[in-house]
Amino acid sequence: MAKIALVGATGAIGNSIGAVLAQAGQPWRAIARSHSALQTQFGADPLVECVTWNPEDAASIATALQGVDTLIYTVGVPYWQFELHPVLMKRTLEAAIAAGVKRFVLIGTVYSYGRPQQERVTEDHPRQPHTFKGQRRLEQENLLLAAHAAGRIQGTVLRLPDFYGPGVEKSLLDGVFKAALAGKAADMIGPIDTPHEFVYVPDVGAVVLRLAANPGAWGRVWHLAGAGVISQKTMAEQIFAEAGSRMRTRVLGKAGLRLLGLFNPMLRELVEMHYLQTDPVIMDDSALQRLLGSVHKTTYAEGIRQTLAAARAAA
DSSP letters along the chain, please? Predict the structure, then answer.
């Protein structure tokens, strides 16, 4: 059986992909920096081979990728160090090619588009990022697509919108879930009444694996859109209602981000991406659905219910 490896396995998308592989009874390799995190997350599954790597060391990367056929790349970097994205991609890609990896799936974002020029953004929308983060994501994608075009490896990119789900902390909505359960006011980045979309993380794993197994997937970009167009405000209303709490919010705009960013590096880095709150990128994923057929998307109501249930159980 072809060996699948997930680099950056201990993140939210890694959890989703790992869950689907576990259900299928398929052996795979989980690769991350932290051995303890790998053991905590996957150590109970005898079909998972936990391997640590040092992405700053080419030899370490090469060792981690030996014997792998399909590589799924979900490596994150600190939000204030996006310059690392193309650097780590180049190292990993070169090591993968040298190790004989045949297929490489990159999980991407909408950052590489810049401001949208159409109401529904398809995969052929111009990639003209005006932000530092978008430019680095664009470089990352171009490295993989160029390697594919040169016949060095089969590569594809799956772009996701914002996401949420059980245990997903790096989400615009994580604080809303926590505040609703605690009966407190939720801090949100506004405006919160503009169109938005969110993908429910447990849905992602099955799509990634179906894409990686499809011969028609390679050499281009794909979108996985959310379960419909909604707003942060409507999501918050549904979250508080499901939690049985009165909705209270504190909304921080761009000026507030800039001010608080003087003391908080994460908020400082959100300033340049604030355009996504006022000029949202709403994705069209009809191409993916034509390729794969039906794509399951958990409704927002059900995703909220399951996320709150998991948070209650964890508490």
Answer: -PPEEEETTTSHHHHHHHHHHHHHT--EEEEES-HHHHHHHHTT-TTEEEEE--TT-HHHHHHHTTT-SEEEE-----TT-TTHHHHHHHHHHHHHHHHT--EEEEEE-SGGG-S-SSSSB-TTS-----SHHHHHHHHHHHHHHHHHHTTSSEEEEEE--EEE-TT--SSTTHHHHHHHHHT-PEEEES--SSEE-EEEGGGHHHHHHHHHT-GGGTTSEEE---SS-EEHHHHHHHHHHHHT----EEEE-HHHHHHHTTT-HHHHHHSTTTHHHHS--PBP-HHHHHHHS------HHHHHHHHHHHHHHH-
Pick from 2, 69, 77, 64: nearest CA to 38:
64
Overall average pLDDT of the 133-145 stretch = 98
CATH architecture entry for 174-194+229-279+310-314: Alpha-Beta Complex (3.90)
Q: What angle do CA 181, 297, 155 make, to 5 degrees?
A: 115
Contact, 106 vs 140, CB < 8 A? yes
- Paired strand residues for 82: none
Torsion sign across C-alpha atoms 183, 189, 194, 195: negative
CATH of the domain spanning 4-164+201-226+282-297, picked from 3.40.50.720, 2.40.50.1070, 3.90.420.10, 3.40.50.1000: 3.40.50.720
Q: In whole angstroms, what is the distance from residue 68 CA to residue 99 CA?
A: 8
User: What does DSSP say about strands 195-196 and 230-231: parallel, antiparallel, or unpaired?
Assistant: antiparallel
- What pLDDT digit, counting tens, does each position of 254-305 carry? 999 999 988 998 899 999 999 999 999 999 999 999 999 989 999 999 999 9
Overall pTM > 0.85: yes
